Amino acid sequence: MPDRFSVQQGIVAPPSLGLKEASEELRTAFYNWCALTFLIRDDGRWYSRCQVLWNFMHRPLDEMPLTPYDTQRHLKLYLIREAHWWQFYDFVQFIPYVLSSENFARRQTRAELNDLLANEGSAYRFVEDSLAPVVAPVEAEEVEKALHSPVAAVGVQIADALAKLSARPHPDVRNSIKESISAVESALKEWAHFYEILPRIDVVFVPGGDPGHTEPRAMLAFLDRVARQSACPAVRFRSLQADKWHRYIAGDAVAGDDGVTMMLAD
């Protein structure tokens, strides 16, 4: 959805909430989404659906209203007025689980809720099944990739780090960082073992960052330092002829939009 006219014209600033904030606008937008998506659907399942939500809020089931209207009114009061900021986000995080049991696509539900959170300036986004203080799409994508790493230990440690970072009301930032570092160390150990068993490495491609716009001169200088500080044989760069590649006066160094291709000297 495009920004509002007032935001586009710079009349008002776009909404931006802190980590411990859930504005009335955000709460109302979420309640309206719930109402339109599943609360007011006349499919005969409203009672069982609301029973799950009522239990999640730790409310006695025998006190749950017997009509859809009264139940919605209680949920509205809870979400907009009563719930602490962290209880509100707990509720948001729980919704994909509720709907996935009714053939709602969990990924699609998370995507819709991420759009809502972004539009209302929330400091949280879904990363897989957890709400985390990660708002940049590229960051969320990278975390999701790490969760499904082929190195099993990495996925476990990143999941633990994400859980600690997402803990409410008090995120465990210190231990989240420790788990993230452990995940990197696990990946390095796995790749170190992989390279140790290879009899020979002829070509190494070094990505030029994400999305590949690292300044070539900076990259070449970095690679030169790596080569000098490592126990690897001397590195020479292979010249590639392509429209997007640019020659630099640095021996046979060639850098492009994506990265640098190197060949290890015999």
Question: How would you describe this structure to a colleague?
Answer:
There is one protein chain. This protein is mainly α. The chain is built from ten helices and seven strands. It has three domains: 119 residues, no CATH class; 59 residues; 62 residues, no CATH class. Helices cover 52% and strands 10% of the residues. The strands form three sheets. A three-stranded antiparallel sheet has the order 3-7-4, covered by helices on one side. Strands 1-2 form a two-stranded antiparallel ribbon. A two-stranded antiparallel sheet has the order 5-6. Strand 5 and strand 6 form a beta hairpin. The longest helix is centred in the last third of the chain and has 24 residues.
List keywords for this structure.
266 residues, mainly alpha, 3 domains, three-stranded antiparallel beta sheet, two-stranded antiparallel sheet, 10 helices, 7 strands, 52% helix
What is shown here, in short?
With 266 residues, the protein is mainly alpha-helical.
Please render the helix and strand layout as text.
Layout lengths: L4 H4 L15 H16 L6 H11 L11 H15 L2 H16 L5 H14 L5 E3 L2 E3 L4 H11 L4 H14 L7 H24 L6 E5 L8 H14 L5 E3 L7 E3 L6 E3 L2 E6 L2
Antiparallel strand pairs: 1-2, 3-7, 4-7, 5-6
Radius of gyration: 25 Å
Strand content: 5-15%
Q: What is the succession of H and E elements?
A: HHHHHHEEHHHEHEEEE
Q: Please give the order of strands in the largest beta sheet.
A: 3-7-4
What's the total count of β strands?
7
Specify the helix fraction band. Answer: 40-55%
* Category by helix and strand content: mainly alpha
What is the total domain count? 3
Distance between the termini: 56 Å
What's the total helix number?
10
Mean pLDDT: 76
Weakly predicted, low-confidence segments: 233-259
Overall spatial form: elongated
Q: Describe the biggest sheet?
A: 3 strands, antiparallel
